[in-house]
Specification:
mainly beta, 5-stranded antiparallel sheet, rod-shaped
């Protein structure tokens, strides 16, 4: 090779070297090759006249351990000095590339993800590709946020609302911070997804179609449901064929159910939903499925002062009136018999389809008390009851079986002259009585108190109270026709008006001397006189 050719070749090599050096300048990002790994950093060849250096603190511990000579890494040229020294930054290159990607995502209106790291005034800080972004509270969700702490640590989809980054990354900006403003929104992602779902829903939306929906809110008058990007209202009257006191009996926020579209106004975007319409109204076939006399099982759904409502099938309720709870003349409050949610057997009394009324009974499935009494007692049996009512003609006694028997005033005592039962009995008093007769058909029962002891008129009185015998007696009552006097052993006699000694003082409760002048066993009466008394 001649000298001229050698000179030309040398010029070409120098030219290429010079062009290479010209491409390496402060503030650019370039690729370099790892040529040495030291304790304090990494030596990298970027094609310049001298190698560059990246400090160890720009690598994570794991990254640094995995580095090998010959690896290619992207670096940012921090500094070039006149002596040929090169200072490089790997993290600065990474941040610049991140901002470039973020800008591209922003310009293409694409989504990205970030992790919510902490609360701050007015919102949250979010880690987006290693950049700290700001997520305003108003951009977190469609609804107002109540629990901010619940979002910490969540990885969420985002849209970039605003990005403000350096206009260039050359040497002239090398001393400026690369942390620029990044504002993101989760709400915008939710709104766009909702709009997409809304558009898809509109394609299939029509009256009568059944769609899945999620319960968003519950009020006293109904339930708001998201059926795919658009809200529909389920009125309380369209929840069930049975009475609904509050929608919360059927739904909770977040429930996913199927609903029927019963009305749809596309222009107003107003949708009315139905839930009960998914099944046939049970009242339409109530007369075919139920008839008086049938016994069915049902569930107690509500209790009132006048009775209980029993659901015999989904949406079909009947009323057990308080008078149909028990055979007792005065039933207790319905809550004393059943509780809401309990299962009961009921007899159907009547079915009125047009009035949507179903009359039920519980007591009809119980033995009638008078049948029980007729089987349990016979005349002559003794039983303990309580005095329920006192009348002029006697006392009604409530027996354990819940029926009332009558003790006629004439059956209170063998010997006393009683003008009203209150003279010997009081209400709620516990008394022993004897069954005299039972008529279950007429629901009557005759009871007696005097029958509990032997009749003194058969043996005792005739032998003790003989004509002419004199006794000391206590004045019980004065009447127009004479004075009633209590003799020994609760036996009473009457001093006829014509036999009263007016010279004696006669006052109720005072004692007087009397003589027996008549003993009428048939009428059970003893006649007395105050005259011709022999005793002093």
């Amino acid at each position: 090779m001649d000298t001229h050719m050698k000179v030309e070749e040398t010029k070409d090599i120098e030219s290429l070297y010079t062009e290479s050096l010209l491409r390496i300048e402060r503030g650019i990002i370039t690729n370099g090759k790892v040529i040495a790994i030291k304790n304090d950093g990494v030596v990298i060849d970027i094609g310049y006249k001298s190698e560059g250096f990246v400090p160890v603190n720009e690598f994570s511990e794991e990254e640094f351990l995995e580095l090998k000579e010959g690896n290619n890494i992207e670096v940012y040229v921090e500094k070039l000095d006149d002596q040929g020294g090169v200072i490089l930054s790997r993290s600065r290159a990474s941040k610049i590339r991140t901002w470039e990607r973020l800008k591209a995502i922003y310009e293409s209106n694409s989504q990205l993800e970030g992790t919510i790291t902490e609360k701050t005034k007015g919102g949250f800080f979010v880690d987006v590709m290693g950049i700290k972004a700001f997520l305003p509270a108003s951009q977190v969700d469609l609804k107002v946020i109540r629990n901010f702490d619940a979002f910490i640590g969540q990885r969420v989809p985002l849209k970039i609302l605003k990005i403000s980054h350096p206009k260039g990354f050359g040497a002239q900006l090398s001393n400026q911070p690369l942390e620029s403003s990044l504002i993101v929104s989760r709400r915008q992602v939710i709104e766009e997804e909702k709009q997409m779902r809304k558009e898809e829903t509109f394609k299939i939306l029509r009256e009568g179609v059944i769609l899945k929906g999620v319960v968003k809110n519950i009020t006293e008058y109904g339930v708001f449901v998201d059926i795919g990007g658009i809200d529909g209202l389920l009125h309380i009257s369209d929840i069930s064929w049975r009475k609904v006191n509050h929608p919360s009996e059927f739904f909770s926020i977040g429930d996913e159910k199927e609903f029927m579209v019963i009305r749809f106004d596309k222009e107003a975007e107003k949708i009315t939903l139905g839930y009960k319409q998914k099944t046939t109204d049970p009242w339409l076939t109530v007369e075919e499925n139920y008839s008086p006399g049938m016994t069915v099982k049902g569930k107690v759904v509500s209790i009132t002062d006048y009775g209980i409502f029993v659901e015999v099938e989904e949406g079909l309720e009947g009323l057990v009136h308080i008078t149909e709870l028990d055979w007792t003349p005065r039933p207790k409050h319905p809550s004393k018999y059943v509780s809401v949610g309990s299962e009961v057997d009921v007899a159907i009394l009547s079915v009125k389809k047009d009035e949507r009324r179903l009359s039920l009974s519980i007591k009809q499935l119980k033995p009638k008390p008078w049948q029980v009494v007729a089987e349990k007692y016979k005349p002559g049996d003794k039983v303990i009851g309580r005095v329920k009512t006192l009348t002029d003609f006697g006392a009604f006694i409530r027996l354990p079986e819940g029926v009332d028997g009558l003790v006629h005033i004439s059956d209170l005592s063998w010997t006393k002259h009683i003008t009203h039962p209150s003279e010997v009995l009081r209400r709620n008093q516990k008394v022993e009585v004897q069954v005299l007769s039972i008529d279950p058909e007429k629901e009557r029962m005759a009871l007696g108190i005097k029958q509990l002891s032997p009749d003194p008129w058969e043996n005792e009185i005739p032998g003790k109270f003989k004509l002419g015998e004199e006794f000391t007696g206590k004045v019980l009552k004065k009447t127009d026709f004479g004075v009633f006097v209590e003799l020994s052993g609760d036996v009473e006699g009457l001093v006829y008006s014509s036999e009263i000694d007016n010279s004696k003082e006669i006052a109720e409760g005072s004692e007087i001397q009397v003589r027996v002048i008549k003993v009428n066993l048939e009428d059970r009466k003893i006649g007395l006189s105050m005259k011709n008394i022999k005793k002093v």
